[in-house]
Structures are given as structure tokens and as C-alpha cells.
Design goal:
By secondary structure, the protein is an all-beta fold. The chain has five domains: about 10-100, Immunoglobulin-like (Sandwich), CATH 2.60.40; about 105-185, Immunoglobulins (Immunoglobulin-like), CATH 2.60.40.10; about 195-280, Immunoglobulin-like (Sandwich); about 285-375, Immunoglobulin-like (Sandwich), CATH 2.60.40.10; about 380-470, Immunoglobulin-like. It contains no helices and 39 strands. The chain has strands spanning about 10-15, 20-25, 35-40, 45-55, 60-65, 75-85, 90-95, 100, 105-110, 115-120, 130-135, 140-145, 150-155, 160-170, 175, 180-185, 195-200, 205-210, 220-225, 230-240, 245-250, 260-265, 270-275, 280, 285-290, 295-300, 310-315, 330, 335-340, 350-360, 370, 375, 380-385, 385-390, 400, 410-415, 420-425, 445-455, 460-470. Strands 3, 4, 6, 7 and 8 form a five-stranded antiparallel beta sheet that branches. Strands 11, 12, 14, 15 and 16 form a five-stranded antiparallel beta sheet that branches. Strands 19, 20, 22, 23 and 24 form a five-stranded antiparallel beta sheet that branches. Strand 17 (about 195-200) and strand 18 form a beta hairpin. It starts with 8 loop residues before the first strand and ends with a strand.
């Protein structure tokens, strides 16, 4: 009796419901066909008998295989009810069908552009018209792309779950699906913390510092300043080092008023993230009682330290150097003070700055923020006696100069003939009635004095008059 005809494989591909590899072939035309033998290759590359399918019309076989272990190759032979003369006897089988090899697909996720990049092996055993990329997303099938190539890139939505398949449209009219590629399109991980630490005035600039979790690939922090209309505008950006980002706002008028800032980060893909808290600097202003030399100060509160305000510390500069120890420490909620400077030596102005000290915050940090430097000016004052007694109770003729620190000081005594009999550049030195050129004591007479001060490098203050020497 004749053996069954050689089967013809239709397709080898994954069943999208069961995720098993499905082998399909034609119904054998031989009337005595009893079933089919399915073959595949083992791990050593040998073609082995995999399983037996009984029934002439049973032409589909499902095989559970690792999804990432392909491609897989199969063939089929038909057998009838007759036994061979072999010992032991076996069914009489046909020649094996031509081999068919499945598509094995793989993918790489490119998170930032939200692309899934697919590559796959070609389907073997039948001609292929084209390949289609199909997506199963929220139980909906969508055709994403068609190609005759073996690679494709598809755009996907972040944080959404997909199963992608490559489908081969075969020249024999059948189709074959690749192994499923199931994944969730990731998105950049947000930082576990993003805190705008402090905004602090430093001379004519404002220093800004942000604290952010750099472990998730934060690329930079952008700083924004609120303008006079209440609208934020970008002023610059800084990279992140050791969870910290620093920016110096050097294009700002610190004497205009309090300045408000905020920060926003760029994630590992360069996308704009969330804003942190705002920070508003301290602004100091005040007035001077010129007669009593009492200064009145007020300032705006600092916002927004995470740990709250421990206290406000007020520093003073009366003679060119800032005091290292605050002369006033006030609890939060106190934003004014008065300062009696009548006994304080100064250079014509008394300057102040206020520092807000933070309590320990949730990040284990304690920051401080300084205000603008605010100065109250006093007019120069000079007191000059009109007489002195070298041998009496007032032996030194010494002008008293207040509220000024001259860069150049000249004090001259001139006799009635216009000759300078004494001159000094030391504000602490006075005339004891001795004529400098001879060393002899001057006699009772009226002398002219002249005091010249140079301040602010070019501004001259001159005072002159007469003094009577009495012995």
C-alpha cells in the first residue's frame, strides 16, 4: 500500500491566546491517513520526534516552549494504519514536510523618546510578503507598523503596559506570530526629595541653593525669579553635585525689595519635573533720627524654611567692619528694632543686615539667610574750640570730628602773617601751642585754623576759623 502524501506545513508561530507555539499543516489527502508525527530539533541540533497527533483532520499542534528560547524549527510526517515490516513494527509514514522556522523577536526600550526598538529573525520555510507590528494594549489590538525589514521602532506611552508581536504575512496565505514582547514603558523616576533650601543675599548678589535626590539621574535644576508683575521668569540653571545645586543671581537689585524664587528640576530625560517650595529673601529698611542718633529698623520675614525660623540675628557695621557677633537676637515674629548709636564711633553711616536662622529640618539641614545690607547715613559733624590755654586747663587745641572717616585729613594752624606754624594729618593729634619750625612756644595771639577732609575719594569738606591762644 502507498504511504500517505508528504504534508505541507502552513505556519509555525505563537498562539496569542495561549502563548504556546502553534504548528499548522494541511489535511493529508491520503484516505488511510491515521495521524501525524511532529518533529523538532533538540538542544544538540538533532531532529527528534516530538509528539504524535491522531486523526486525519487534526492538523494543529501546540507546544509549550520558553518565550525567549527561539527561533524554533518544526516538520511533520503523516502516517497511515498500516504497519511496516520492521521489527518492532511501526506505522507507515510519509516523507517529512519542508522545515518551517518561527520568528524570534526581542526589544530594547529607549525610555526618553518613549520608543520600543524591535528586532527579529526572518520567518523561514515560506516566502514573506511583509511583517506587521501589532500592539495589545488595554485588551485592544492595534497595528503599529508594516515593514519588509527585520527591525522597527514604535512610539509608546510612558507608564503603560504593552504586549507587542511581529506578524509575518506568508506568501501561502497564512500568518505567523512571533513570541510576545510584554513590558511596561518606563518613565524617569522622580526624585525622592526636591527642596529649595535657601535664598540668601550676599553683598549685591543673591545665592540660591537647592537640595535634590541625584540618584535618579537628575541632570540639572533650573532657578526662576518672580518679577514685579508676579510672573516667574527663568534666570539660570545649575548641574547637580552631591544632591546640591547652586546658582548665583548676579543680575538683581538687592535694594529693590524682597525677592522670591523657586526651582524646578530636569529629569534623566531632560523633561521638566515638579516645582519645589518658594523662598523669599529678607528685606531691611529703616530711618535715622539725626539729632538723637537713634536708628529704627524693620524687615520682611523670611519664607519658607522647612524647619521654620529659630530666630533673627541683627549685625551692625559702624566703622567699616561687620561685627561677627549679632548685637540683637530676636525670636520669630519680631521684625523691628531701634538702635541708639549716639555713643558709637562711625564713618558717617551705620549699616545693618539681618540673618534668619533655621531650625533643624526634615533633611537634617540647618540653613541661614541674610538680608540686604542697609545703611543709614549721618552728616559729618565738627566741633572746634575758639580758645585754648597751653599752660592751663585746656592745653591742647583739638577739633572733634564725628560721623566721618576721612581718607585724607589735614589740620593746619596759620599765624597772622600767613605762615603755617603747625600741621598734622593725624585726626587724633592737636596743637599744644608750639611752633613746629623752631620748637618755641607761641605767644598769646589769634591764629587761623584750617581743617580739610577728603571723603568718598574726591569729596572735600573744609572748615576754617580762628582760635585764641591764652597763656
Amino acid at each position: 500500500m502507498l504511504t500517505p502524501y508528504m504534508p505541507v506545513l502552513s505556519s509555525v508561530g505563537f498562539d496569542t491566546s495561549s502563548q504556546q507555539l502553534q504548528v499548522q499543516w494541511n489535511v493529508n489527502a491520503a484516505p488511510d491517513t491515521y495521524g501525524y508525527v511532529v518533529y523538532t530539533y533538540d538542544a544538540n541540533g538533532f531532529l527528534i520526534e516530538l509528539d504524535t497527533v491522531y486523526g486525519q483532520n487534526n492538523t494543529t499542534y501546540l507546544h509549550s516552549v520558553p518565550l525567549n528560547g527561539g527561533p524554533y524549527t518544526y516538520t511533520v510526517a503523516a502516517f497511515d494504519s498500516c504497519f511496516t515490516a520492521n521489527n518492532p513494527p511501526s506505522f507507515q509514514t510519509s516523507a517529512k514536510a519542508n522545515l518551517h522556522t518561527s520568528i524570534q523577536a526581542s526589544y530594547v526600550i529607549d525610555m526618553c523618546p518613549q520608543l520600543g526598538k524591535l528586532t527579529w529573525s526572518r520567518y523561514l520555510g515560506s516566502g514573506v510578503q511583509d511583517y506587521e507590528i501589532w500592539s495589545k494594549h488595554n485588551n485592544t489590538w492595534t497595528l503599529l507598523q508594516s515593514t519588509t525589514d527585520t527591525s522597527a521602532s514604535v512610539s509608546l506611552l510612558k507608564n503603560e503596559s504593552y504586549c507587542l508581536y511581529v506578524k509575518a504575512n506568508l506568501a501561502n496565505g497564512f500568518e505567523a506570530f512571533s513570541n510576545p514582547l510584554c513590558f511596561t514603558m518606563p518613565q524617569p523616576t522622580p526624585p525622592s526629595f526636591h527642596y529649595f533650601r535657601v535664598a540668601s543675599v550676599n553683598d549685591e548678589d543673591i545665592e540660591l541653593t537647592a537640595w535634590i535626590d541625584a540618584s535618579v539621574g537628575i541632570t540639572e535644576v533650573q532657578f526662576e525669579r518672580k518679577d514685579t508683575n508676579g510672573v516667574y521668569e527663568p534666570i539660570g540653571a545649575s548641574g547637580v553635585s552631591n544632591n546640591s545645586a547652586y546658582f548665583l543671581d548676579d543680575d538683581v537689585d538687592t535694594q529693590w525689595g524682597p525677592r522670591t524664587y523657586r526651582t524646578v528640576y530636569l529629569d534623566s530625560c531632560g523633561n521638566t519635573g515638579n516645582y519645589a517650595n518658594e523662598n523669599t529673601t529678607i528685606f531691611v529698611e529703616g530711618s535715622a533720627d539725626q539729632y538723637n542718633m537713634i536708628n529704627s529698623l524693620s524687615w520682611t520675614p523670611y519664607t519658607q524654611f522647612d524647619g521654620g525660623i529659630a530666630n533673627y540675628q541683627v549685625f551692625r557695621n559702624a566703622y567699616g567692619t561687620w561685627e561677627t557677633i549679632p548685637f540683637q537676637i530676636l525670636p520669630d515674629g519680631n521684625y523691628t528694632l531701634t538702635d541708639d548709636v549716639s555713643q558709637l564711633r562711625n564713618k558717617g553711616e551705620v549699616c545693618y543686615k539681618v540673618m534668619a536662622l533655621e531650625n533643624l529640618n526634615q533633611y537634617g539641614l540647618i540653613d541661614s539667610s541674610y538680608s540686604n545690607e542697609f545703611c543709614l547715613a549721618y552728616a559729618p559733624l565738627m566741633f572746634v574750640p575758639n580758645a585754648f590755654t597751653p599752660d592751663g586747663l585746656n592745653p591742647i587745641f583739638l577739633p572733634v570730628v564725628q560721623n566721618v572717616d576721612p581718607e585724607k585729613y589735614t589740620f593746619s594752624i596759620i599765624d597772622r602773617w600767613g605762615k603755617i606754624v603747625f600741621e598734622t594729618n593725624d585726626p587724633a593729634a592737636g596743637w599744644d601751642g608750639t611752633i613746629s619750625s623752631s620748637g618755641l612756644p607761641a605767644t598769646n595771639d589769634v591764629f587761623q585754623y584750617r581743617i580739610e577732609l577728603i571723603i568718598n575719594k574726591t569729596d572735600a569738606i573744609v572748615k576754617q576759623g580762628y582760635v585764641t591762644l591764652i597763656r
